[in-house]
Amino acid sequence: MTILLFGVTKDIVGSSTLSVPTTTFTGKKIPNTVKELKQFLGETYPELNKLSSLAVAVNNAYADDEQIINSYDEIALIPPVSGG
After folding, report:
1. How many CB atoms sit inside 10 A of residue 9's CB?
2. pTM, full prediction
3. Which residue in 60, 54, 59 sits closest to 10, CA to CA?
4. Most-buried pick from 5, 40, 42, 64 (CB within 10 A)?
């Protein structure tokens, strides 16, 4: 599963994309929902937990925590933005 990263999430991870294993060879539960993905990423990159909000888009649409995700979905992490 490939995740597109923007803004501060890209800085935290150190890349503009992130691959999440879709098999259990890591011994960790495979994320099946947006909520599980956020938990997985928060364990792997604890700095993400410090963000005031973190939106997730699945296939170009904002997704709620209960949305099911698959390895072929286009997923993006959208950090909080400030504007003026």
Report:
1. 24
2. 0.85
3. 54
4. 5
Residue written as tokens 């993400």? Answer: 48
pLDDT of the chain along its 84 residues, tens only?
889 999 999 999 999 999 887 666 556 678 899 999 999 999 999 999 999 889 999 999 999 999 999 988 999 999 987 655
Contact call for residues 44 and 21 (beta carbons, < 8 A): no
Using only the alpha carbons of the chain, give its radius of gyration.
12
CB atoms within 10 A of CB 68: 11
DSSP 16-69: SEEE--SSGGGSSPPP-BHHHHHHHHHHH-GGGGGSS--EEEETTEEE-TT-B-
